[in-house]
């Protein structure tokens, strides 16, 4: 009887303990033998342990599975939220601050291509430029951008140029990071003098360098080679301005009409709305780019604060003093010269290439099919290849050594 009572107490104690445990706990009957005499403890028979129904492994699997499913859902929610933040930031920037996005884009592209930005001063005048590489046995390359552009317009070409060349892209007078002064001489002659100051600040003319220019920058580059022949060893002109052709194209005719009507506020190359920006892109390029409205707005937002300066500059470089400055000095160019021009140029007529070829003794012409005025933007790879091939032919350098 005493053994049965103790066994019953053990069962009750086991149930109490089981109620406070998880489903994995077993309702095990307990026998208390400490109260029995030592001689009788050996004869105590432990009751058979029967597993509780709650301890069956299959009963716990649904709960574990539901927890795992919840963890997976949480993981995807966290990952999705992490990815959504930069995506939403990008979309917000594109919609609200497209001009800031454009600046970030250029910064990232410069960084990717290894172009470093520096400043140099001539007295109180500041020049901003980017560069890659260091002067070596081969000539350095100085690149001059076009009207209302900046040094970063060359990045699309720099991408395809060998990394062992010393490249310098400078902001032209009044553009981007270079000083803009109301007293500055913006004529072609004035810009040539400023670029010469920049060259001397960097001591780039310790050794003759290769000079590249496009559009207005090509105009300045050609006149520079005529004025400072000892500084330049070779020249690449990409659809340069400053030439007098036998006939005017539609763009030049339109400019003459605007001058007669004194309506120079509507210069096609100085857009102030997204629609005008789209028209300018169509004028300057043969390829019809599909540019989103928001990006057009961003491009306009970047330019509008500078439009008054661009208008003043445009009137200066198209004045009687500067309009045909390259034409008047092309006979003084004695260095090997390369002319690159888009056959479908609607801004500056392609016949200008023949004008230069007839006046420069050592000159080769490259005409690009299906290409407009923005050769650098439309055909960057081809432009880079032509420059490298020309460079290699002059300095007996294998193209493979330039890679």
Automatic annotation (TrEMBL):
Cellular component terms, GO, for this chain's entry?
AMPA glutamate receptor complex; GABA-ergic synapse; glutamatergic synapse; late endosome membrane; lysosomal membrane; membrane; mitochondrial membrane; postsynaptic membrane
Which SUPFAM superfamilies does UniProt cross-reference here?
alpha/beta-Hydrolases
GO molecular-function annotation terms? Answer: monoacylglycerol lipase activity; phospholipase activity
Q: Name one Pfam family in it.
A: Abhydrolase_1
Which residue ranges are recorded for the region named Disordered? 1-26
Q: Where is the composition biased (Basic and acidic residues)?
A: 1-11
The way it spans or sits in the membrane comes to: Single-pass type II membrane protein
Cite the entry's keywords alphabetically.
Endosome, Hydrolase, Lipid metabolism, Lysosome, Membrane, Mitochondrion, Signal-anchor, Transmembrane, Transmembrane helix
| Reactions catalysed | Hydrolyzes glycerol monoesters of long-chain fatty acids; 1-dodecanoylglycerol + H2O = dodecanoate + glycerol + H(+)
Q: Which GO terms describe its biological process?
A: acylglycerol catabolic process; long-term synaptic depression; lysobisphosphatidic acid metabolic process; monoacylglycerol catabolic process; negative regulation of cell migration; negative regulation of cold-induced thermogenesis; phospholipid catabolic process; positive regulation of lipid biosynthetic process
Main location group: membrane
The keyword Mitochondrion is assigned to this record: yes
Q: Which Gene3D superfamilies match?
A: alpha/beta hydrolase
**Which Enzyme Commission number(s) are listed?**
3.1.1.23
Question: According to its UniProt record, where is this protein located?
Answer: Late endosome membrane; Lysosome membrane; Mitochondrion membrane
Q: Can you tell me where the transmembrane regions are? A: 75-108
AB hydrolase-1 domain mapped to chain residues: 139-380
Q: What does this protein do?
A: Lipase that preferentially hydrolysis medium-chain saturated monoacylglycerols including 2-arachidonoylglycerol. Through 2-arachidonoylglycerol degradation may regulate endocannabinoid signaling pathways. Also has a lysophosphatidyl lipase activity with a preference for lysophosphatidylglycerol among other lysophospholipids. Also able to degrade bis(monoacylglycero)phosphate (BMP) and constitutes the major enzyme for BMP catabolism.
**What is stated as this protein's family in its record?**
Belongs to the AB hydrolase superfamily.
What's the name of the protein?
Monoacylglycerol lipase ABHD6
Source organism per entry reads Equus caballus (Horse)
